[in-house]
Please model this.
Amino acid sequence: MAVAMPLADRAVLARRDEIVAALRRIVPGEGVIASEPAMRAYESDGLTAYRQLPMVVVLPETTDQVAAILGYCHREGIKVVPRGAGTSLSGGALPLGDGVLLGMARFNRVREIDFDNRVAVVEPGVTNLAVSQAVESAGFYYAPDPSSQIACTVGGNVAENSGGVHCLKYGVTTNNVLGCELVLVTGEILRLGGKHLDAPGYDLLGVVTGSEGLLGVVTEVTVRILKKPQTARAALVGFPTSEDGGACVARIIGSGIIPGGMEMMDGPAIKAAEDFVHAGYPLDVEALLIVELDGPRAEVDHLLERVQEIARECRAVTCRVSNSEEERLLFWAGRKAAFPAVGRISPDYYCMDGTIPRAKLPLVLKRMQELSQKYGLRVANVFHAGDGNLHPLILYDANKPGELERAEKFGADILLLCVEVGGVLTGEHGVGVEKRDLMPAMFSESDLDQQQRVKCAFDEKGLLNPGKVFPTLHRCAELGRMHVHAGRVAFPDLPRF
Amino acid sequence: MLSSDARRGDNQSTMTALLKPGNPAEVEQAIRWALAEGKTFELVGRGSKRAIGRAAQWDATLDLSALSGVTLYEPEELVLSARAGTPLDEVEALVAASGQQLAFEPLDYGPLLGAPSGAGSIGGALAANLSGPRRIKAGAARDHFLGVAAVSGRGEIFKSGGRVVKNVTGYDLCKLLAGSWGTLAAMTDVTIKTLPRAETSASVLIFNLDDAAACKAMVAAMGSFGDVSAAAHLPAAVAARIAEIAAGRTAVTAFRLEGFAPSVVDRKAVLENLLAPFGALDSLNEAASIALWRAIRDVTPFAAKTAGDRDLWRISTAPSRGAEVGRALTEQMDAEVLYDWAGGLVWAALPIADDASEPLVHRLVATAGGHATLIRAPAAVRAKVHVFTPEPPPLAALTMRVRQSFDPQGVLNAGRMWAGV
Model:
């Protein structure tokens, strides 16, 4: 493990039996897991390179239990790591050896569906897909659709501000969540938002969304549901170069079209996907674009014509449009299977997640090829082209000494490249432990200090998910100190009127 | 230390000094000076919304209007960066020239406050988390706010977010600054998402519905394939003040359709079919539709020149509860209401009262769920009632801690939202 985690507190570890007993009093029955074999299931999340057994796992069922657990841990100075389904790709739910792992899986009920107000009220352990399934009978759905949607939970989506392939048009989690019940580390229970829009004061829901489990534990979420589009059709367009593909994406958006989804794959990803699912992808192109239009039939047909015209003008060498739902799903099958497809051609792969200004794509792909040579590792790229979110898949073999470390260095270089061209370290997977130590590449010390001061406002003792997101932990007292130099601040140049 | 030149602020009863920094470093200097001297600032962009908020006293005004100019606009990347004091009009005109818009449709408080239109800044639009009728489809300013550079009330420059739409790197401090009314930090540079402007638009109208029936019609429309981008209900006396819909002399429920021409035609048919059972229908062409929604956005029926003798509340509730809030107000007093956001936003113009009817409004909001903001009332009233809905104690305490994490000494706009916040 390349990332250093906070040192285990021996005094806490010495009290393990007492802590387990206290948790059993709060959550009776099967809700506390303390045996090593049973805790193994929780030792890592979707970023399996990092593993750590927790001190104890607790699976509460009610908000009061969550509040009691957090209140107890807060009083006793015990660290807590919240966990949804454990699908994080950045190690956001990586346990701590001296910490309580707070699993939210038992919060799995849909509490209310309110079609009149177009919201669903769900518990955080409900899976993303289950929200859409719960409302589909009336023709509604929940828009954010991360690729793990069959397994990932709404609570995890809130923690990570998850995206998906449709977020250019429909937004990410933060744009689709209206309210939540939040338990602070002190055990205080708050309500943020509801079925109405906007906050009376600070948008605390907005900062909790995407806070990676560092600010509080969500025990209920109110999400916006949307009427399902009447129809969706896709175009599959191949280009001789990634420049041509990138130019086509820019032209489509520049002409006023916001597609429901717009995905790009590079040569290696196209080949791996086609070999795996036989979606009929052309193999003689360097960039393949899936453009999906959704909405009323008249609109979709109209826009598909325009997309085809633009594609031709951008030197597309192939262009097919789906004429049936089966064909549309086939176009997507290759893209959706891109990760497992790459898994077939390499013993292991490492999935990265930077975002770049779209126009920089050809430059970034070129530089990535140079890095690929440098590290002696292959890379395949899938790209949420509409919003610039790039997922390079680095191919390696964990059984070959040094390859994992090389893959991690290669990945870090790619993310630094994203920042260098005006992008960011992570578009949707989160910082977690994985990108924690890269944060200074994007943020100055004072940027990070201000973020940590917000953390202090929610969790002064730093007990919730420590070791994630921030490369250096400061004590809140130290962060709160003011450095005012009375009398030494002059501003002779400041215009005064 | 400050110059003797001064001007009178809307919220101030005494003459105050004015600082007008020209760059972020000067903003930082000014705030560090205030910290060292124990002074407080009223923070303003271009000053168009100074009359909103709890009336409080500050030692000097920190005016950010000299931080002006668009620094980056790439239409094909859907992104624009500007100095925070850049006129909102300038930003909207620039993106319109490329066939784009700010999809959150920021309302212009000018008419309601009896001030000129088009006087706001982009930073002010974000700090007040403005939105308009399209809020229900496209979100508020918060949803389009990608990145920020600011100076905290600690006198420290910091940034958050970036220039790309998909970004989860670190906490989303843009969300906190949106709607913070300048109480956390002085924004110096902002980056927002721009989106294509609809190729065309039209509106469908229903006449003569009562408030409750109108809300039912709006619920039906919002759950249809109509893909409505705005839905509002105007009782007869209110509708009479908007030229485009005044002729019918009845209540008007309006639905806006925006998009590509064939799509608008298609959805208009869907919507008319759906709404026919509710009552007599009519429609507005693009030009009239644009004028109507502009009037609803800026709530011109309650503009200061027509209804300036009334206190004005903006109430956000669940769409299904809007009509009950409106009915309760009209039953208890000579209130006028206008419903936007498919019933979820109630604009209420109430007869002037010493307490701006604040206890009643907040009682109704507590029952229906949501929150209310007192938009227009004399400063003396705004100094003593809850202009923003009070938060319950644990939440109010968290709000205070968040404020102190940015501005521990209360230098910036302290007391603008609640006492101490």
Notes: The domain at 346-434 of chain A is CATH 3.30.70.2740 (Alpha-Beta Plaits). Residues 236 and 320 of chain A are 5 Å apart (CA to CA). The longest strand of chain A covers residues 231-239.
